[in-house]
Design brief:
Layout (H helix, E strand, L loop, with lengths): L2 H28 L2 H29 L4 H24 L2
Helix pairs in contact: 1-2, 1-3, 2-3
């Protein structure tokens, strides 16, 4: 497996597990189990796709090395998840 593919998969999984516990707790407190399962599965797919897209764009620009691009992608995905959590909590 190529280094870029490993980084994309790792960043997607890290961002997913760093953010899914907040959504899981929110859904558990509101007693909507089926919506929670659907949201958690969709979130995994979205995180993996976004990590692929972000790292590919950063590699295409070719300013930083792969490790720096992976860290930047992780920060962007965590920021996306924080915004999604704030939106869900304020609904």
């Amino acid at each position: 497996m190529q280094e870029r593919a490993k980084a994309q998969l790792t960043i997607g999984i890290l961002a997913y597990f760093a953010s899914v516990w907040v959504l899981f707790d929110y859904m558990r407190n509101n007693h909507i189990f089926m919506d929670a399962v659907i949201l958690i599965v969709v979130l995994l797919v979205v995180m993996l796709v976004l990590s692929y897209i972000i790292i590919t764009i950063l590699e295409w620009v070719n300013v930083f090395d792969l490790k720096t691009n992976a860290i930047l992608a992780l920060l962007v995905l965590i920021g996306f998840m924080i915004n999604l959590s704030v939106y869900l909590f304020n609904r």
